[in-house]
Amino acid sequence: MHTINPQPTMFSSQDRILSALVHLTALSFGNLSFLPVILWSENRRHSATLRFQILQALGYQVLGYTLWAIGLLFLVLLSFLGLLTLSGLVPNLAQNESLSVAFSMFTVVLLLGAMGLFLLPPLLGVLLCGMGKDFRYPLLGNRLARALGYDPNAPQATLDAEFEERFVAAMGHFGVIFPLWGIFAPAWLWINHTSHSSWLKFQSAQTTLYQIVVNVMYFGLSFGALLAGVAVALLFTITSGVNEWSVVVGILFAAFLMSCSLLILPIFHILGQWAGLQILLGRDFKYPLLGHWLAKRTATGQSTDAG
Which of the listed residues 159, 189, 221 is the one where a domain comes to its end? Predict the structure, then answer.
């Protein structure tokens, strides 16, 4: 097990402030997940207690958000199915104002409850870390502590530096779920720091390039769909004259193309999630074509080499 400069596990005043702040970034629903990565990168030689809290916050923002988003999608689908069932059981549901209001209120409460469920743990983390107490996220915290070999009660707690890098690299891959924002964390590890292992730099480099490709596809297809919709609307106007159907046809065509892109992009997201899972399981991963091309150019990325 590799370790980095063992330090006492008690919270210093700086540890309290930084730990509280890093948990606070989770309120962005993962869009600020690059901040824990920067803090971890800049504090690798500091206390294990601080690094553990940073890694926890990073994992919750990325993995926690992913699971939360899947759960929220499941709840929305259940609500939709419930509405369909209700419309079949209640004649003229659209004219039944009381039921419509009740269902709308139920949906709002459900969404607000889901948001509160996600935000409550990091707020608790802010409070407890600010008080200098050890904090663990449900499901994640204890598992991460065991994987890192972290014991807050030990006189000089240490962390497994190899797993630290593996965990951070995996979160970079999982971050593909965040359009645009997910690029910043691996890009920082790749470009702005020289103390990390060549393995982490390689994983960060291929993740950054992969997410750039995914984002270019996402925004490119979206913009292309809008342009195509405008072009179809103009063509319809030229051939059929100016009328309200020109706009309708253009919108429908753009919506169709955007729907097609939404069916394609999840494949790339799933590949990024698969990459993160492989890294967490202790395996090396290279993206098809991109990863192998990058490995040949850098001659790295074959094994973990925590520095």
Answer: 159
